[in-house]
Amino acid sequence: MQQLADSLLQTGFLQGVPTEAGYALVIAFFAFVLLNFIMLIAGVTSWLERRVWARIQSRVGPNRVGPQGVIQWLADGIKNIMKEDIVPAEADRPLFKAAPYLAMMGFFATFAVIPFGDGLVVADLNVGVLYITAVTALVVVGILMAGWASNNKWALLGGIRSAAQIISYEIPAGIAVITVVLFTGSLSMQTIIRAQGWAPWDWFLFANPFLCIASFIFFVSALAEGNRTPFDLPEAESELVAGAFTEYSGLRNLLFFLVEWGNLYVIGALYTTMFLGGWQIPPITEQPVIQGALQFATFFAKSYFLVFVAMWIRGTLPRVRVDQLMTLCWKYLVPITFANLIGAMIWFVLFPNGLAIMRFAMFALGVAVTIYFFSRILFHLRRARPRLRLNPIS
Amino acid sequence: MEAAEIHRRLRDKLGNAVEPTLQDGDWPACEVRAAAVAEACRFLRDDPDLRFDCLSNLSAVDRKAADQIEVHYHLFSYAHRHQVVVKASSPRLDPVLPTVSNVWPIANWLEREAFDLMGVTFVNHPDLRRILMPEDWVGHPLRKDFVEPEEYHGISTRRESLLKI
Amino acid sequence: MSTAGIEIGLERETPAGLETEEMTLNMGPQHPSTHGVLRFVVKADGEVMRRAIPDIGYLHRSIEKISEKVGYHGFMPYTDRVDYVSAMQCNQGWAMACEKLASIEVPRRGEYCRVIACELGRIASHLISVGTTGMDIGAFTPFTHALRERERINNLLEELCGARLTFNYMRIGGCAWDIPPGFVKRASEFVEQFEPLIDEYNELISFNKIYVERLANVAIVPAEMAIAWNLVGPNLRGSGVKYDVRKDVPYSVYPELEFDVPVGTGERGTLGDSYDRYMVRMNEMKESCRILRQALGGIPEGPVIAKVPRTFKPPPGEVYVRVEASRGDMGWFVVSDGTAFPARTHIRTGSFSAMAIIEELSKGLMIADLVAVIASLDIVAPEVDR
Lengths: 394, 165, 386
What we know:
Number of strands of chain B: 9
Low-confidence stretches of chain B: none
CATH class of chain B: Alpha Beta
Number of domains of chain B: 1
CATH topology of chain B: Beta Polymerase, domain 2
Low-confidence stretches of chain C: 1-12
Oligomer: heterotrimer
CATH topology of the largest domain in chain C: Cytochrome-c3 Hydrogenase, chain B
Number of helices of chain B: 3
Number of domains of chain C: 2
Shape of chain B: elongated
CATH class of the largest domain in chain C: Mainly Alpha
Largest sheet of chain C: 3 strands, antiparallel
Helix content of chain B: 10-25%
CATH architecture of the largest domain in chain C: Orthogonal Bundle
Order of helices and strands of chain B: HEEHEEEEHEEE
CATH architecture of chain B: 2-Layer Sandwich
Largest interface: B-C, 35 and 43 residues
């Protein structure tokens, strides 16, 4: 972005505009583009989630607005905007109103460093990963603020749960990220991607056992940080009504859901960046536009696969209890990831340039696990097929 | 154990507080004086040969003709798989019975229900208040002479018949 | 239902040296997981409950008083409303009580129709129960899958009696209608297709690690406690007491049919925990399939209803009839005074005692456990309040 702003100023495109204002204009433009992009992503994710979830639950899901209901999210958004924005009489008004925007900001800021392609990144910060860890913490503040300001005990419980959960799970997530940083020597997202290759065996997921373990820990912790099932305790609808968001209505409620669905994509994007080779594509073309498009598509597909996995998990698993959540974090994940980090250090000292055999072996193992998994799925599908075909109204 | 035998044992224990005849029926019933109910129930539960460990049901019946409120205790023994009814009557005007909620914990709620709907007062009950009806309800709905109030907190309980409109 | 006196008898119990502020949470009557309109006043210390005080009566319709006004025949549709999740067994309870009062013999075909209807109803009710258990602890998928199967049962019962929820199928002396042509074939098909699905549910949720962790060792009810609190049906059997009214006080044609009574085994935790109660329901569905298979195969010819006078006046007397409803042993206490209207009806239901025990069980549980306990006790609000 900086280069673009500089080049615009140099070429005289922004003639007569003061330098600061020129920068501000470029920033505002990018923010506008990104905001729309995020709305689209969150909206499409919400539609996708409802469809995937419906399919898992043998329902139909939204299929009325547009072909297969693809613009259902737009209709929902309009509906929510037109709804009355109710603020409870006893609520702390300024905090109550500010909370959704704070949560929104925290998640919106992460998109600044997500690398969609070789050049397709708003700001390739040299502390990219650290930055993300920092700004996502703003979401906690937003949710906690919402829970407190609602002046509702259920909302307060939800907010406190959320704060406790997200702060606890920052630790394993952070250590897992450090494991990756150890191998790249840089916190920059682009550098992390460039350290990997386009081929699966060049991904960090298969680089060595320690990174593989770190990837799983990161995914679990990220699910917990994004308040996703099985860690969706802050809004646990069967226990806390709607948790921290109980008192919200209309647009403010929508913003929280935007954060939730947007966060889902951020989780996928982060995981893709760190473990799945990001936007790396095979060298098939020199044409920069096609290359950029392919990179973007690759990154998008990979992160949406992870979004799909998160939805799948949501459709399958029940919710853990608060004490079990904390047990999982402090008694299992934290010790494992620290041990894992030490192991990774030893590995790095032994093989500073990686070990090709290990990479291929890990990849082969991954393929074997996938094949085994699909063979089981196929078995189940075959068993279930006659029943799936049954007309429900027979 | 046969109902006659249970009745005999109960009479041996409590003497004249138990009616001399066993009422035959679906579940044989021993009629007990109101004041002796708690003692009878405790004996029925604690005696190792009887062991009525479960109060299956507690129902109050409004016998308007006899001017009595009759309370039926349906007892069942999971240990011996036998059953008996203990019956006790109390005047309709002010029915008072000793509580059995310290014998079977479930009696707590069942007695509250009988109190709420039939107006039976259970002496020594730990928490005798209305359970199904609102706290400020007047009257006991299952009494035969209960008249539905015209309104409750301004809400009319009457409705024009839809057929007339 | 209390409006003012809920604070009676709620002295704060403060552990020595650990003085924290107790939070009073009002759960319900419009809470997503209270299965109808139940209300709990939860005294909580953070996430840990000191106690949850049930407050019932929000669904009180005075069904017992209605019976004194509408007469024996006319009361049958109201019995559906006692427990609208498994209305068939309520029908049967009322019919059996009246038949016992007037010593009416039900034709064998009628009894078979009743058994078929009741067992289908039992499967439907247990499906709701296991589905909502999943939903209450956060897994929505089992619920929709359970409802999908229940829908087919509803279709079958609709063929049988024209209604999908409040059936009004049985009459004093038998059943309202004979089974329609082709029903036996369709019902058998359903049973054959449904039975393997139970294993699939088990694979989907019952053996899921999180699911087991959430239910096992939660709210343990030892057998003595269950009996003293008059827990009935699957809740009692979950505590390891092998007692089923269909087996131990046989009624209808159940003695002719072969089935087992599943009891809790404490397979994943302690005997009598929430998981045992849940598993008993799972296994009971299998037994119901077994019963259905035999009943559908052995249905005799003949009339389905005995001749009962239109003005039904049973001789004076009192009966206490128990049927095994989906939520266990349902007691129907009917007093007749010789007129066309019952002098008194009292319905003792399984959910009532299950609701009463919650205050005792809730001590020291987490708030998230409360919904799991409500679900595992399978409390249906209309049955508590009647």
